[in-house]
Amino acid sequence: MTDKHDHHQKKDEPNDEHHDHGSENHNAHDHNAKHSGSHRDSSRGHDSHGHTSHDHDSHDHGSHDHESHDHESHDHGGHDHDGHDHGSHDHHEGHSPQMFREKFWLSFILTIPVLFWSDHIQQLLGYSAPTFPGSEWIPPVLGTVIFFYGGLVFIRGALHELQDRLPGMMTLISLAISVAFIFSWIVQLGLLDASALWWELATLVTIMLLGHWIEMRSIDQAQGALQELAKLLPDTATRISNGEEEKVSADELQDGDLVLVRPGENIPADGKIKKGSSDINEAMITGESRPLKKGEGDEVIAGTNNGEGSLRVEVTGTGENTKLSGIMRLVSDAQKSKSRAQNLADRAAMLLTGVAIFAGVLTLVVWQFIGAPIDFSIIRTVTVLVIACPHALGLAVPLVVAISTTLGARGGLLVRDRRGLEEARNMNVVIFDKTGTLTLGEHRVVEMTVADGIEEDEALRIAAAVESESEHPIARGILKSAEERELDVPSPEGFRAITGKGVAAEVNGKKYQVGGPALLEEENAEVPSALSDAAEKAADKGQAAIYLLQDGKALAVFAVADAIREESYEAVRALHDRGIEVAMLTGDAQAVADAVAKELEIDTVFAEVLPEDKASKVKEMQGQGKPVAMVGDGVNDAPALATADIGIAIGAGTDVAVEAGHIVLVRSDPRDIPRIVTLSRATYRKMLQNLWWAAGYNIFAIPLAAGVLAAWGILLTPALGAVLMSASTVIVAINAQFLKRAKL
């Protein structure tokens, strides 16, 4: 190994001197080897510590130009979700719970006198209503008012359905109330000798309005997370101009403005902290329950909550350009996107509409054929049309999806394409990209061995102090490892680089050196056998062996590598518990990949894979007939994510512009993968329950409404049919709400 590969460099020193940390292959665990495409040189020991591939700028992101991801094309109109466009719920477009509530209460009040002066109700309950001139016109007049005031919304909905050639719930309701209304006026005008259906019409319209009011409230509750997210943005902000504070509307903020965020306030816009520090609660955005300590230079997100510190923040994003708005757009789009289950429900709803109309006509024909009175036959027909409304079927999937996507968003699982979430329950294999996903993508001390007479923490504390003025990633990794152990790292004195071999410094008045095997040779150092064995073991795993020396004697050896995330162990275990095979894909050398795979008990390893070959490895697994999920960084792994059955972009932070993958994970936490499976299975289970309930009850309801049990005196009125239909809708809505209890 040549000694030009020194990894140490004092701060502000020109980077023209390097030193060797040993003959181990470190391009193997260079966390950007996958970008450089130079890993093939690793077998020749090339670039073992130059770390030239750490130059992120060399990775061309041009092909992933996020500017092309035009969110404006979605036209969500800011945070306005009042449109209630729920995918298959087009029959409710422009409707609101308030409208249905107002129509219900007025119709309900008008229905009372219709019922009171109805001949049928008087006979049924054995009373006589007061009579006065014109009293016989109370049911037809008020019934007509109810039809036009309360029923017109259904007729308009039916016209929209017919224009779209998608007859459904509104069409059936309109048919039912129109048949009852026209028939009743024919009777009222003496053109037919039968009983008018005014009370049936009034109660039917009123109950349908009640059912829709409850349904719209359920939809609003299901999609409430979007409104909750919108409420996170404060209406006003404290802007600092020329040293003076002024209260302004948050809409007035512009990029570059300086705002004051007091303790307990929500941050009004995306920005960078210019002054101050505080604990920021980002739970509603990232799902991270613990507040994060942030200080000068750190980014903050609009809508997150400031802790006890006072902050001055420079605005970098406002309005539609905030990360919160991006998340809301993503959730909204996911709720509107069609899944296979939704398409199935839509087809079933259309089929049920056809069946209901056919059953209604057949009911009328059969009863007339066997000699039943015309008014009786019309009531049976109206009841069939009402009870068979595919209302619950239309709600079955959208409500579940609305809840599951918002539930996922709260936990940092952003669904870009619902089909991905739907398919996640079937995944047999999860392929992880190693670096930055299962591992930190940063060097850490993964193992250490110390000589007699010195404790591990003390050895790490001294080594970190010696390395503290070096900028090399391995030096940074040793220092970071000490910080993570909360060790008190003293400041070194007399720091100097030993050209090509290591670094030296005084710590607490004693001289120490830190470096690789070349330093041992230079110093002719005495190395205890335990340390030599540990160094060989590290080399076998493709890890760097870094020594701490004092007075020509090795005090400790540190195995430094891209550290495995603590969460990865639990993630792999959880996937195995769910019967899912785990594979790993990396550009690293086989020895490094095997070491990580053995540690995590990963089933299949693909090592030394060029970035452009990752997609072919995904196809290889798919060729075995297995639904495959690929977990990568969303940009560099885009082809593999697009090839997989389920593409999962991990560690995107709040950058929801990531174009690859069906699901975007806010955090770099592999434990979110089994959580996706849990959410997918819970969502699918709830969809099936709702579909069975919504469609299954018609098997009994339609024959009952048609009057098959009339011989035994069991008949349903149209109003009771409306109650049963509304009840099935409410049950579907309530059942969907239970998804909120799912433990992810």
Description of the molecule:
The protein is an alpha+beta fold and 744 residues long. Helix content is 46%, strand content 16%. A 7-stranded mixed beta sheet has the order 10-22-21-20-11-18-19, sandwiched between helices. A 6-stranded antiparallel beta sheet has the order 2-1-3-9-4-7, with no helix packed on it. A 6-stranded antiparallel beta sheet has the order 12-17-16-15-14-13, with helices on both faces.
In short:
This protein is of the alpha+beta class and about 750 residues long.
Explain the layout of strands and helices.
Layout: H1 33-36, H2 97-116, H3 119-125, H4 138-163, H5 169-188, H6 198-222, H7 224-231, E1 236-241, E2 244-249, E3 258-261, E4 270-275, E5 278-281, H8 283-286, E6 292-294, E7 299-300, E8 305-306, E9 311-317, H9 323-336, H10 340-369, H11 374-387, H12 391-410, E10 413-415, H13 418-423, E11 429-433, H14 434-438, E12 439-450, H15 456-467, H16 473-484, E13 493-498, E14 502-507, E15 510-515, H17 517-523, H18 529-540, E16 544-550, E17 553-564, H19 566-577, E18 581-585, H20 590-600, E19 604-606, H21 614-622, E20 628-632, H22 638-643, E21 646-649, E22 663-665, H23 672-706, H24 718-737
Parallel strand pairs: 11-18, 11-20, 18-19, 20-21, 21-22
Antiparallel strand pairs: 1-2, 1-3, 3-9, 4-7, 4-9, 5-6, 5-8, 10-22, 12-17, 13-14, 14-15, 15-16, 16-17
Helix pairs in contact: 2-4, 2-6, 4-5, 4-6, 5-6, 5-11, 6-12, 6-24, 9-12, 10-11, 10-12, 10-23, 11-23, 11-24, 12-23, 12-24, 15-16, 23-24
